[in-house]
Q: What sequence folds into this?
């Protein structure tokens, strides 16, 4: 092309006077029209964008090979404060202080996390076809789409792993092999694993699963509290771990009592459930299930049996023994002591709650409890 | 309606600046005068960027409406030509991207460019051949590369001018044009330009 001749000279529209006049009339109409002239387009475009997003997700899920993710190998670690991490697809991980999570794999197809230390609350967005699991010291938690908490703590010769499910369902299994346990909303799972899990010393497959009753559970008539076993709240985790219940002649095991209590509670027999939990605490005070049994007993006494004083005894024990329920147990203690008019204990429980869970789910209610300080 | 602005007695007619001021104030006669003055430029550029007559007319119409709504932002009232070109270029870019999306979603079927209808019968063989090359690859290029190639090859614009119209840096425009030229060279052989 020469300088004075451009290709554009050979691509010219045929714009007759009548065509130009028609075009001007259309422009003139639009100039006089309200600003939103084609609202359908925004709707159509938004719909198209949603469809595109679904198409992209489908393609990524079914056709694309697993992409190397920047998350792979990442280490999430909290210092003295809680740390909240949001994943791209909407899931959220809230690490408790002094916790560590290693992202073994993190992409659209699979999220595999290792949690060697501490605890964390997971709010997992359901993504169809995506695997999401958390492995905590010999226990693997498989997730579909749920909110749950995993906590680990050192005990003599190993670790205790507690899984508490707020919403949805998770599947828990020992990484060294063993039965898969489904833990549903309102239930908790607790298991003691050895520090180095092998086939030979695999975790006890008869791990604890405690279920909360349905909201419509009928109230039982008032009942008295059994005396608490001595020293329960002060017992060490090591002692609990080493003294797991074993079947003995004629005496129900801790597991049998625990299951008996759960079954009674789920059938609406609050009194029967309380009796079973009380027996467990009396005869197996150091069993791994004792903390959970204490919490359930406290809740039953408080909500259904009208025994606030007895509830505080059980809840104090639960707060000390069941890390997965410490927050709820402390919040209930604040409420119970407040109702009982025990100002000093109410304030003590309030301080304990706000000290360990300043942003907890009950924090607002706890702050308002006990009335003004002395 | 003749495609010429109404003339004054001197034959020059009102200046762009005067018409812009009046049009920005909502004077319909001034807007019409500007339309008549720039209809060929805007429709021509639209057709070269979107080589489909119906779509090009729609683009030109959109560009005028947007321009009249934004005239108050035009600082240099004599720079209306460049202002209109920028609006056409950016609107065309958006349209191309949107059409690509609709095509991917199956909501639009890309239509082949009717090169015989597009290219003037008076075009010399070498010019016609070059236009055929450019327009035959447009659908395969990324939206911005496509716009940059037409502005460079067909409109004959300088890279700085393209950068201004696209609202991109000079370096970006060089990359876009270079990428499109490389694609052309790969398809038809011979060294790419720029």
A:
């Amino acid at each position: 092309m020469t300088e004075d001749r451009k290709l554009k000279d050979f691509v010219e529209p045929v714009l007759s006077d009548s065509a130009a006049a028609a075009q001007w009339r259309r422009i003139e109409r639009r100039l006089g029209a309200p600003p939103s002239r084609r609202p359908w387009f925004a709707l159509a475009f938004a719909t198209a964008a949603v469809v595109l997003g679904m198409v992209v997700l489908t393609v990524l899920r079914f056709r694309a090979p697993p992409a190397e993710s920047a998350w792979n190998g990442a280490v999430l670690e909290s210092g003295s404060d809680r740390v909240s991490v949001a994943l791209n697809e909407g899931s959220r991980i809230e690490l408790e202080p002094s916790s560590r999570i290693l992202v073994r794999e993190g992409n659209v197809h699979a999220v595999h996390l290792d949690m060697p230390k501490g605890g964390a609350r997971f709010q997992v967005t359901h993504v169809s076809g995506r695997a999401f699991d958390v492995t905590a010291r010999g226990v693997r938690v498989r997730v579909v789409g749920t909110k749950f908490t995993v906590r680990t703590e050192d005990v003599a010769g190993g670790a205790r792993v507690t899984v508490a499910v707020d919403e949805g369902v998770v599947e828990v299994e020992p990484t060294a092999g063993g039965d898969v346990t489904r833990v549903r909303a309102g239930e908790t799972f607790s298991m003691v694993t050895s520090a180095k899990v092998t086939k030979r010393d695999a975790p006890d497959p008869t791990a604890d699963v405690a279920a909360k009753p349905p909201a419509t559970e009928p109230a039982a008539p008032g009942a008295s509290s059994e005396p608490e076993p001595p020293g329960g709240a002060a017992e060490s985790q090591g002692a609990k771990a080493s003294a797991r219940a074993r079947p003995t002649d004629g005496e129900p095991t801790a597991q049998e009592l625990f299951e008996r209590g759960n079954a009674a509670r789920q059938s609406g027999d609050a009194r029967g459930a309380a009796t079973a939990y009380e027996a467990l605490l009396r005869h197996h005070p150091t069993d791994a299930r004792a903390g959970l049994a204490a919490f359930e007993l406290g809740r039953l006494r408080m909500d259904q049996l009208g025994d606030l004083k007895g509830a505080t005894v059980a809840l104090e024990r639960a707060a000390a023994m069941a890390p997965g329920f410490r927050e709820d147990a402390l919040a209930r203690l604040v409420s119970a002591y407040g109702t009982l008019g025990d100002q000093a204990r109410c304030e003590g429980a309030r301080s304990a709650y706000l000290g360990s869970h300043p942003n907890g789910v009950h924090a607002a209610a706890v702050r308002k409890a006990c009335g003004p300080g002395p | 309606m003749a495609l010429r602005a109404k003339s004054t007695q001197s034959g020059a007619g009102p200046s762009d600046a005067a018409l812009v001021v009046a049009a920005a104030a909502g004077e319909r006669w001034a807007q019409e005068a500007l339309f008549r003055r720039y209809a060929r430029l805007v429709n021509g550029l639209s057709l070269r960027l979107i080589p489909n007559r119906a779509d090009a007319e729609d683009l030109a119409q959109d560009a005028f409406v947007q321009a009249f709504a934004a005239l108050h932002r035009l600082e240099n009232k004599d720079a209306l030509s460049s202002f209109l070109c920028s609006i056409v270029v950016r609107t065309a870019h958006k349209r191309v991207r949107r059409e690509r999306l609709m095509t991917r979603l199956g909501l639009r079927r890309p239509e082949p460019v009717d090169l015989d209808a597009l290219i003037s019968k008076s075009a010399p063989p070498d010019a016609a051949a070059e236009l055929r090359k450019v327009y035959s690859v447009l659908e395969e290029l990324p939206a911005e590369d496509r716009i940059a190639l037409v502005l460079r090859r067909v409109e004959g614009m300088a890279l700085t001018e393209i950068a201004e119209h696209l609202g991109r840096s000079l370096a970006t425009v060089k990359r876009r044009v270079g990428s499109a030229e490389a694609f052309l060279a790969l398809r038809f052989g011979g060294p790419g330009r720029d």
